[in-house]
Structures are given as structure tokens and as C-alpha cells.
């Protein structure tokens, strides 16, 4: 799971960097950074919750 998460995060980082690079105006850049930060937080929260479920399942068994 961590390998999948890591490769997904790397490709997302590249995508976010490219999106930010394409928006040359500061307002567009700020919006792109805000969107990528929100999406990044959601990805981290989802991965943390998923890892918690995995640990709980292994602890229960």
C-alpha cells in the first residue's frame, strides 16, 4: 500500500508542479497551490485512515 501511495504522491507532485508552472499570473498560481494543498491533505487523510484500518484488522486477528 505504501508503494502505491508513494508513486501516486510523486506523480501528483509532478502534476501539481506542472499546473503551478503553467499558471504564470499570481492569482492563478495561488489558486493552483491552494487546490493542490487541499487535494494533498485529502490524500494524506485518506492514506492515514486506510493505514489505521489495516492496523486495526491485524490487531483484531
TrEMBL record:
Key words of the record: Membrane, Transmembrane, Transmembrane helix
Membrane-crossing residue ranges in chain numbering? 39-60
* Protein name per UniProt: Uncharacterized protein
Which species is listed as the source? Armillaria tabescens (Ringless honey mushroom)
